């Protein structure tokens, strides 16, 4: 119990140390905010993220995965907990939990870095935004690898020229390949195909928000027919969970998170609509993907059959592409001081998260 508390304290220190390069390069000049670019922190941030992922004990999944892998090696059987690629990795690493995490999260970071390289957004800034908004969620679930592969395919698909059929096919192949690494990727794939018909417009965002109660009502009414399939196969088993209570800790975290994301999403859509001709198509489509993931996650929260788990899972799928879009937005615009509010809010959310994780570990409640 005490050792876990020490680990979480070390996780917390590493997390906030990784934010220092970003926070130190926020420049305030004539009531405007600028984000200074740089490259000297690239490798340090990448290695720091990997270290955080290797030993992140702030969530119970770290212990669960270790237990499942030990049972698989001990009983020499196939587990329905892990998808086939992970089973191969477990056997080839002979059950080494360190190597399992090293390869899963190392490969995930590799694909994420390749996506950033293709888009030519500032890597240093993007990784800093990724740490602030995404690293905690990225570090504790294996779906992060599947999402990284999907994003790489998404970037290949939309960054290619219109007539580049080969690159588009390659992108689609990687997006479909992500299904092998986590069954819940069916959700993001469906949203990807839906998003192809949605334009990045302020009007569309406002209309969708106004229609939200109607969407919840319709999904609630027809949810039994929509998911009249094997829920475990498509990774929607979280829908069958009992309704959990959010609890004061989650409510506080969501409050800080919501303030940050709502402000950023609104500021970005306004900027994109004013400069639609110069915004890369991939960034536009990625914004739509992020918005739809947040939208669908809220639908899952409000429907009768939904659960907090489903809301969290779908919401967290949006974090990695969100970091890329926010990075592009930050580097290409001059901001008023109000842009510091969402950053400060997200910083508070992370401080609260680590403080509460330490408290739970001290009580021995992280299992």
Tell me what the structure shows.
With 367 residues, the chain is mainly α. The protein has 18 helices and 3 strands. It has helices at residues 2-23, 42-54, 61-75, 84-92, 97-119, 123-133, 135-140, 143-159, 165-177, 185-195, 202-210, 212-226, 231-234, 247-274, 281-302, 308-317, 319-332, 340-363, and strands at residues 26-29, 32-35, 335-336. A 3-stranded antiparallel sheet has the order 1-2-3, with no helix packed on it. Helix 1 packs antiparallel against helix 2 and helix 15 packs across helix 17. The longest helix is centred in the last third of the chain and has 28 residues, at 247-274. The chain is globular and about 60 Å long.
User: Tally the helices: what do you get?
Assistant: 18
Largest sheet: 3 strands, antiparallel
| Shape estimate | globular
Radius of gyration: 20 Å
Note poorly predicted spans.
none
Distance between the termini: 10 Å
Mean pLDDT: 82
How many E strands? 3
Strand order in the sheet with the most strands: 1-2-3
Strand content: under 5%
Structural class, by secondary structure, is mainly alpha
Q: Could you give the order of the helices and strands?
A: HEEHHHHHHHHHHHHHHHHEH
Q: Helical amount among residues, as a percent range?
A: over 70%
Provide a brief overview of the structure.
Helix content is 72%, strand content 3%. The chain has 367 residues and is an all-alpha fold. It has a three-stranded antiparallel β-sheet with strand order 1-2-3, with no helix packed on it.
